[in-house]
């Protein structure tokens, strides 16, 4: 790699210099004239279909990229969004924007699988779970979902599993959000669920037998009604009641749990999270007692550490259903942690009284607007309302919406005769007056005593008055957010210090390397992150008119074109808002393609035994049967077994899912033979793009025989992991599958309304963070992206070479090379010394590191992925720590330290464990807390090793009382 001129982005992004790379190549044993890529990538695929027709060869400077983004942002028109439909204009407290959303301590953290170094974000997620559970009136919430529509799908699947057998009918409220109904249709069809739409609020009867029903509360039309009778009827029919609820409304109206709901889902977007053209936003799910083991996604629980101190961790048995593989009812592999943290901190900052006041203000503005419209003779649809009105204007809906648009406000044209108006926290008095004028209520809006004018009431007065406007049986009487965390941080000073205290407990990329195999924890550049808080990107409603989002559409079109070029495909959809959803979308495309040709019987999906659990789970949720293909001793797909499975299922073969480079971290040299064998049998090839960081610029999935792939923008393309989300998982496909990619009825882009339907709530998924990947590609250019691949693969081979004599490298490809990650086999160490993979992982914390990926894809191993972003000093620091730990294990084996009392078995060591009480261990305090190589940047874990089993036996998933910490 050429370091390039000072200020060139690629030289800033890639941590190793040209001189460093020469030394590393020598350590790896690369011959003169060769490169690590030329010896690692199989010759049969090297250079296949090189990219370069769409993506710029050279990157631009950071300043130039920001200037181009400013130009794109300037083509978006920021109007007051009063469209509603599940998305509301909100105000992000500056203290949360600066100290969470824009803080690398939060946005560069990884999923909290290592709980000892994740206590801050785990506490924040426990706040989120407590907030959701309190407001929904049910006991167990998970740590966030991808969005409201997919949360509704997951609620449907939980209900089906809870009922076990019987009916395949699921009822959907006619007044549910339109995008939720659309996503439900796509997902239900694939798994054999029959959807029946019923006007529940209108009193229509349920089918005789159902396994569940979805109720929207309040309805998409804005109607606030009592669904208790419907919930009771669902139970009588043998089903589970799923309620999609507005969290802010629940501060004023009765909780779904109090009305008998079994499952409550929704979005926390209006709790301080920007609109972002549809995402990312944290959905939520909360369930009644008895369903907690069915929860998809992640569940934060409470346990204790080795000293008996209270500590948080992911509840092992419930955190991810996709580990059930082909028996899964969900393929969710991520969450929306960063956005869940923002929503939780919004509740912490405002507290219960503040949230009630915000809700009351929203309802008050809605009521005053309604009064102004009625006074002017408008036909406002009757019924109680919280924040949304439907107004009948026969034949004039388009005219009214256009008039409001000209005045700077976006309204919803429900049909030719009806306009929807939705009030949000950020809605101003000027917005209300503009809306009134658009409906012809100019005189009423201008009058000095107009109800649009606001009042001098206090917040408490307004809460009391708006409460009176809710029917008595629906007024909320239950307390919520009673835990002290929601009442202790009223001032900005207190809030800032609370966020800092939590961040200090955690290990993120701003502290050091996170060498996680399969996860690509690379630099998330500040320049790439800069634009996501610009209002031209952040304050755009996902259903805004096409003419107002020209900048977004141009950015999306460019990014889709670049990704298609880089992967060798013809079409890309950016809609999937996680890698797991991209997998599902790709498999649904394959399913749709086969069915369009009359091949309904093709439903077998071949998946290697090494594959990530989401692959099998996604196949099941796409209506496919999973058949596992064996891997050989080198970790490659066993070609003989593959051919035997193809022959056995030739007539039913739908797809093969493989990951390239493989899940075992090697470039399989038989990949072209593998894909050809599937195509010869009439199947399609899905190549999982999780490991694209090892291929970019050197070969393309579409040229390896891939028909469709998903990509992880939060891995290869530098969107931050955010502690476990947001993610973006675009799906890319060949031309013959393009017609079966996701679509959306509200999509603004040309042709984006045509396809199989949506897999996420918003037309372009988590569009608000797409500028990050756009900026990354624009600043790197094809040359920089290729250099990044070279540097990442060289770093992995360097680590493998230096550690090979201490820890066997389990799998290698041609000439003994690995791809962008290597699997270190710790099973011999365990057999020889008794030191486990857990002991090594926890001891790395004392050395100042996040552990590599543990026991995946092989139990008893560590999978290391150093990425291109780390410099040579950090790589050497990690290698030296691993070697030092090996020597510590040898001292245990030699009998110098007992097997149950040594630095590894007792790791990690907290400051308290070193300073409080007598030191009775056979090793020194210094050895315990300051092992060799630890310098000034000492990281102190807040807790010792956590007892996972205790937490699962004593499941607690909400904020514990303060005295629990005593």
TrEMBL record:
Required cofactor(s): pyridoxal 5'-phosphate
Domain Glycine cleavage system P-protein N-terminal: 12-438, 487-743
Catalysis performed (reactions): N(6)-[(R)-lipoyl]-L-lysyl-[glycine-cleavage complex H protein] + glycine + H(+) = N(6)-[(R)-S(8)-aminomethyldihydrolipoyl]-L-lysyl-[glycine-cleavage complex H protein] + CO2
Modified residues (N6-(pyridoxal phosphate)lysine): 715
Oxidoreductase as UniProt keyword: yes
Enzyme Commission number, as recorded: 1.4.4.2
Keyword Oxidoreductase: yes
Disordered: annotated segments: 447-466
UniProt keyword list: Oxidoreductase, Pyridoxal phosphate
Bias-annotated ranges (Basic and acidic residues): 454-466
GO MF term set: glycine binding; glycine dehydrogenase (decarboxylating) activity; pyridoxal phosphate binding
Subunit structure: The glycine cleavage system is composed of four proteins: P, T, L and H.
Protein name: Glycine dehydrogenase (decarboxylating)
Annotated gene: gcvP
């Amino acid at each position: 790699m050429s370091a390039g001129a000072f200020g060139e982005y690629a030289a800033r992004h890639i941590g190793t210099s040209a001189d460093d790379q020469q030394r590393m190549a020598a350590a790896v044993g690369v011959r003169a004239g060769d490169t690590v890529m030329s010896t690692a990538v199989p010759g049969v695929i090297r250079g296949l279909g090189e990219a370069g027709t769409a993506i710029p060869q050279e990157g631009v400077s950071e300043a130039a990229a920001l200037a181009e983004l400013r130009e794109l942002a300037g083509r978006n028109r920021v109007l007051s969004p009063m469209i509603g439909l599940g998305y509301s204009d909100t105000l992000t407290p500056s203290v949360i924007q600066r100290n969470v959303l824009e803080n690398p301590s939060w946005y560069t953290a990884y999923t909290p699988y290592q709980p000892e170094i994740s206590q801050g974000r785990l506490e924040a997620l426990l706040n989120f779970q407590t907030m959701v559970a309190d407001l929904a009136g049910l006991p167990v919430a998970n740590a966030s979902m991808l969005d409201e529509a997919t949360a509704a799908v997951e609620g449907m699947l939980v209900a089906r599993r809870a009922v076990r057998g019987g009916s395949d009918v699921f009822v959907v409220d006619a007044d549910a959000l339109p995008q939720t109904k659309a996503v439900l249709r796509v997902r239900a069809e694939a798994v054999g669920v029959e959807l029946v739409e019923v006007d529940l609020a209108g009193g229509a009867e349920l089918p005789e037998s159902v396994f569940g029903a979805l109720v929207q509360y309040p309805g998409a039309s804005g109607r606030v009604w009592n669904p208790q009778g419907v919930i009771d009827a669902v139970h009588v029919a043998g089903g589970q009641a799923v309620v999609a609820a507005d969290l802010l409304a629940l501060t004023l109206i009765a909780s779904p749990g109090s009305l008998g709901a079994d499952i409550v889902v929704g979005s926390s977007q209006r709790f301080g999270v920007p609109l972002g053209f549809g995402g990312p936003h944290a959905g939520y799910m909360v369930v009644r007692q008895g369903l907690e083991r069915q929860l998809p996604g992640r569940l934060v629980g409470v346990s204790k550490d080795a000293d008996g101190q209270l500590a948080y961790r992911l509840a092992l048995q419930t955190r991810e259903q996709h580990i059930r593989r082909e028996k899964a009812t969900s393929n969710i592999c991520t969450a929306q942690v960063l956005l869940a943290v923002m929503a939780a901190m919004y509740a912490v900052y405002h507290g219960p009284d503040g949230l009630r006041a915000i809700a009351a203000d929203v309802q008050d503005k809605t009521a005053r607007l309604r009064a102004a419209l009625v006074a002017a003779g408008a036909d406002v649809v009757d019924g109680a309302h919280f924040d949304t009105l439907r107004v009948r204007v026969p034949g004039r809906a388009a005219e009214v919406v256009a008039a409001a648009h000209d005045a700077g406000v976006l309204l919803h044209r429900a049909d030719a005769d009806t306009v929807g108006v939705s009030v949000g926290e950020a809605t101003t008095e000027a917005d209300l007056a503009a809306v009134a004028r658009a409906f012809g209520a100019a005189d009423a809006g201008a009058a000095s005593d107009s109800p649009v004018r606001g009042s001098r009431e206090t917040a408490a007065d307004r809460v009391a008055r708006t409460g009176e406007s809710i029917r008595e049986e629906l007024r909320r009487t239950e307390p919520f957010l009673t835990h002290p965390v929601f009442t202790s941080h009223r001032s900005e000073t207190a809030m800032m210090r609370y966020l800092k205290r939590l961040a200090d407990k955690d290990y993120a990329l701003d502290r050091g390397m996170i060498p996680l195999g399969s996860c690509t924890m690379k630099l998330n550049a500040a320049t790439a992150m800069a634009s996501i808080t610009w209002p031209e990107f952040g304050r755009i409603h996902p259903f805004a008119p096409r003419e107002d989002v020209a900048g977004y559409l141009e950015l999306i079109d460019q990014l889709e074109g670049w990704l298609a070029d880089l992967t060798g495909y013809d079409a890309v959809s950016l809609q999937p808002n996680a890698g797991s959803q991209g997998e599902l979308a790709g498999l649904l495309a394959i399913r749709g393609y086969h069915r369009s040709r009359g091949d309904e019987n093709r439903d077998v999906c071949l998946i290697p035994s090494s594959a990530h659990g989401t692959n099998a789970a996604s196949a099941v949720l796409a209506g496919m049967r999973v058949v596992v293909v064996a891997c050989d001793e080198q970790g490659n797909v066993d070609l003989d077994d593959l051919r035997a499975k193809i022959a056995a299922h030739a007539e039913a073969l739908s797809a093969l899912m493989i990951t390239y480079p493989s899940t075992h971290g090697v470039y399989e040299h038989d990949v072209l033979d593998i894909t050809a064998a599937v195509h010869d049998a009439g199947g399609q090839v899905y190549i999982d793009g999780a490991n694209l960081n090892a291929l970019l610029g050197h070969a393309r999935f579409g040229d390896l025989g891939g028909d469709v792939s998903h990509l992880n923008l939060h891995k290869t393309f530098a969107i931050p992991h955010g502690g476990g989300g947001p993610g973006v998982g675009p799906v890319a496909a060949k031309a013959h599958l393009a017609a079966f990619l996701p679509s959306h009825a509200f999509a603004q882009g040309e042709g984006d309304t045509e396809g199989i339907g949506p897999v996420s709530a918003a037309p372009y998924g988590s569009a608000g963070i797409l500028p990050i990947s756009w900026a990354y590609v624009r600043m790197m250019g094809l040359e920089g992206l290729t250099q990044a691949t070279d540097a990442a693969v060289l770093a992995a081979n360097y680590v493998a070479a230096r550690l090979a004599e201490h820890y066997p490298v389990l799998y290698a490809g041609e000439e003994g090379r690995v791809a962008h990650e290597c699997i270190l086999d710790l099973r011999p160490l365990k057999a020889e010394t008794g030191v486990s993979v857990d002991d090594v992982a926890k001891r790395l914390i004392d050395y100042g590191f996040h552990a590599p990926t543990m026991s995946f894809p092989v139990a008893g191993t560590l999978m290391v992925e150093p990425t291109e972003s780390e410099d040579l000093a950090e790589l050497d620091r990690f290698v030296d720590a691993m070697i030092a730990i090996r020597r510590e294990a040898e001292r245990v084996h030699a009998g110098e330290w007992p097997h149950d009392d040594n630095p590894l078995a007792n790791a990690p060591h907290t400051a308290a464990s070193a300073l409080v009480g007598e030191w009775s261990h056979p090793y020194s305090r210094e050895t315990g807390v300051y092992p060799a190589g630890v310098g000034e940047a000492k990281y102190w874990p807040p807790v010792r090793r956590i007892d996972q089993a205790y937490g699962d036996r004593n499941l607690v998933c909400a904020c514990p009382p303060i005295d629990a910490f005593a």
